[in-house]
Amino acid sequence: MDHNALKKAAAEAALAFIEPGMVIGVGTGSTVNYFIDALASRKDDLRGAVASSEATAARLREHGIPVLDLNNVDELPIYVDGADEVNAHREMIKGGGGALTREKIIAAVARKFICVVDESKKVQRLGGFPLPVEVIPMARSHVARRLAALGGQPKYREGFVTDNGNVILDVHRLDVSRPLKLEEQLNSITGVVTNGLFALRPADLVLIATSQGVERY
Ligand SMILES: O=C[C@H](O)[C@H](O)[C@H](O)COP(=O)(O)O
């Protein structure tokens, strides 16, 4: 099976967690796009969805699924999103598509974070994928110097502006052997809005598609 077929299989497996009347959180990316397309068949079951990006909001609306403001939602039983890397502890690197900040906010509210990935995303140690860090534009050089002092090689994602009007530094070669500590360290750099490590709030369930079927852990 190719990657896209596996992404689709993982995404569709998440439909089983939807119950009538729910408001659900919906992430961003190519895997989640399969989830949104499949969700269209369940749209009458849903009260609505909270989107982690403008792109996701647009796709949900195209399917006639109501998009709700997170501020008007009391509870979010599930949040379905992809990842760029996930380890055995369900800690992740996210933000390859630049949606990390809104993703982290929705993940913080959600009761259950369901991560949907194909098997290529499973890693023993996080950090092969460059870590995205969202930064206030005027702090870009300052934050880049601090990231370099931590041993990383930050690369400015040129021509890309996040949905929040900020920029992204993709940090190569960071030592991510202690994800929790590193997430806190990066959060404490002035000018950083969010970093793409999801260790303080890992996923609760990973649905991982392999050529043998969708496994969960
Ligand atoms: O900002 C983007 C998100 O964190 C995505 O969940 C992540 O990049 C994975 O995307 P994809 O499913 O396209 O590989």
3D architecture notes:
The strands form three sheets. The chain has a six-stranded mixed β-sheet with strand order 2-1-3-6-12-13, sandwiched between helices. It has a four-stranded antiparallel β-sheet with strand order 8-9-7-10. The chain folds into two domains: 3-122 and 200-216, 3-Layer(aba) Sandwich (Rossmann fold), CATH 3.40.50; 131-196, Alpha-Beta Plaits (2-Layer Sandwich), CATH 3.30.70. It has helices spanning 3-13, 30-39, 54-62, 100-109, 140-149, 179-187, and strands spanning 23-26, 48-51, 78-81, 85-86, 92-93, 112-118, 131-135, 153-156, 167-172, 192-195, 197-198, 205-210, 213-216. α1 crosses α2 (30-39). The chain has six helices and 13 strands. The chain binds ribose-5-phosphate (R5P). Ribose-5-phosphate (R5P) binds next to α2 and α4. Ribose-5-phosphate binds at residues 27-31, 81-84, 94-100, 103. Belongs to the ribose 5-phosphate isomerase family.
Topology:
Blueprint: H1 3-13, E1 23-26, H2 30-39, E2 48-51, H3 54-62, E3 78-81, E4 85-86, E5 92-93, H4 100-109, E6 112-118, E7 131-135, H5 140-149, E8 153-156, E9 167-172, H6 179-187, E10 192-195, E11 197-198, E12 205-210, E13 213-216
Parallel strand pairs: 1-2, 1-3, 3-6, 6-12
Antiparallel strand pairs: 4-5, 5-11, 7-9, 7-10, 8-9, 12-13
The structure holds ribose-5-phosphate.
Provide a concise account of the structure shown.
The protein has 217 residues and is of the alpha/beta class. It has helices at 3-13, 30-39, 54-62, 100-109, 140-149, 179-187; strands at 23-26, 48-51, 78-81, 85-86, 92-93, 112-118, 131-135, 153-156, 167-172, 192-195, 197-198, 205-210, 213-216.
